Amino acid sequence: MSDVHDYLSAHRERLVGQLVEWCRVPSVASLPEHELDVLRSANWLAAADLSIRTVADQRVVEVGEQLRQWPAKTVDDRYEHEVSVTDDTAQEAYRTPEDLPELELLVEAVREGFGRPVGRMGNAGGGPAALLAERVGAPVLFFGTGLPEDRWHDSDERVSVDVLLAGAATLAHFWERVGRG
């Protein structure tokens, strides 16, 4: 794949110029008598895949139903549309129970590892935490070392070594506390 990227980089100016030239060619799509052809083309070509994560006060089934209703209410009748929602594999949002003793141990460990006050986040739906907790009959406790500005799993993600080291220290403090009971 790097050969393709190398070629595109080496010939970028010429290729962009060719694309600009092509876009300047008048299109039949701009003619009023071809409006139906443009609509047929859009119906054939347009598609969207969505992945939605619910939060604590949302329910997967309700969000799915809202998603099914939205196009019927808003999409112009000239455009065909189909919505399919997979409720059977969707996961509800999960939050570790507030009264779990290990949660307070983790809060203390994070405070010590990072040297600052601790905030809490819930887990958005989409991950298997709710299903895991239900299947094993035990709560799930989350700990992460990323910051929102790190944009993990995005095209411009970054990692701060200081944050990772503080995360490692946090886990060491946590397991020490768990061991003490």
Automatic annotation (TrEMBL):
Top-rank taxon: Bacteria
Q: Which Pfam families match?
A: Peptidase_M20
Give the UniProt keywords, A-Z: Hydrolase, Metal-binding, Protease
Q: What SUPFAM superfamilies does this protein map onto? A: Zn-dependent exopeptidases
Q: Which PANTHER family match?
A: BETA-ALA-HIS DIPEPTIDASE, SUCCINYL-DIAMINOPIMELATE DESUCCINYLASE
Which named protein is this?
M20/M25/M40 family metallo-hydrolase
**Native source species:** Saccharothrix lopnurensis
